[in-house]
Design goal:
alpha/beta; Rossmann fold; nine-stranded mixed sheet; two-stranded antiparallel ribbon; 11 strands; globular
């Protein structure tokens, strides 16, 4: 099976996405081939997009504030011109095909915006919750969420790197995990029937150990969902 990765900015950290995916597939004894769909200097591969069996929406630059009705007069955001258009096209196609989706950091934020939600452009304007690279912190998982069933725990430490977060929730989405200060850390479908399998997290499981409950089980469940839909 082929797993599409949405966008490669070309920095070393993007190799962690493929590395974590391959390692998780080996642990689960599932044959999975990663395919980068687009990136800096790489146009969207429409042929690959047609053939993938699952999608990982990668982290990276900020979503353009105009996408959710805001301006950036203060210069708080760092965007990657053209990336939103490419990834929104990819995400819409994946949803239409009901492909399993793992949305990470920016990926979760983009999904929320696609569904009509908004973002906090810079968390420093709301609270002290602003996480530089490789920041470890705990999250609390909603006991009634699909995420809780998937990871088998209601608390755990994660690795994050972000200065934005979900503000107004998009249509058909609910919060499934939060930081202690209330910042949204994970979202999922309110009614998953007739929707693609989804895990959307603010943290970076590809930068965490495979035995951590909020990392390894997420990749395993994603790969199992891809295998089930592929079969």
């Amino acid at each position: 099976m082929k797993i599409g990765l949405s966008y490669d900015e070309g920095t070393p950290k993007y190799r962690l996405y493929t590395g974590a995916l391959i390692a998780a597939a080996e642990r689960a004894n599932i044959d999975a081939t990663p395919l980068w769909l687009a990136g800096a200097g790489q146009a969207l591969d429409e042929t690959a997009l047609q053939t993938i069996d699952g999608l990982i929406l990668t982290g990276g630059a900020d979503v353009e504030p105009s996408r959710y009705g805001r301006t950036d007069a203060e210069g708080l955001c760092t965007i990657s011109p053209g990336r939103d258009d490419v990834e929104l096209r990819i995400l819409k196609r994946a949803i239409a095909r009901r492909l399993p989706i793992l949305a990470i950091c920016r990926g979760m934020q983009l999904l929320n915006v696609l569904q009509g939600g908004s973002l906090i452009p810079d968390l420093a304007t709301r609270s002290a919750h602003q996480l530089p690279d490789e920041q470890r912190h705990p999250v609390n998982v909603d006991a009634d969420s699909a995420l809780a069933i998937l990871v088998g725990t209601l608390t755990g430490d994660v690795t994050s790197s972000h200065h934005q977060a979900v503000d107004r929730l998009g249509e058909d989405l609910r919060v499934s995990a939060r930081h202690a200060d209330g910042t949204v850390e994970s979202i999922e479908w309110t009614q998953p029937m007739r929707k693609p399998w989804l895990a959307a997290v603010q943290w970076h499981p590809e930068r965490m150990g495979p035995d951590e409950p909020l990392a390894g089980p997420i990749y395993k469940a994603f790969l199992q969902a891809v295998a089930a839909s592929h079969g």
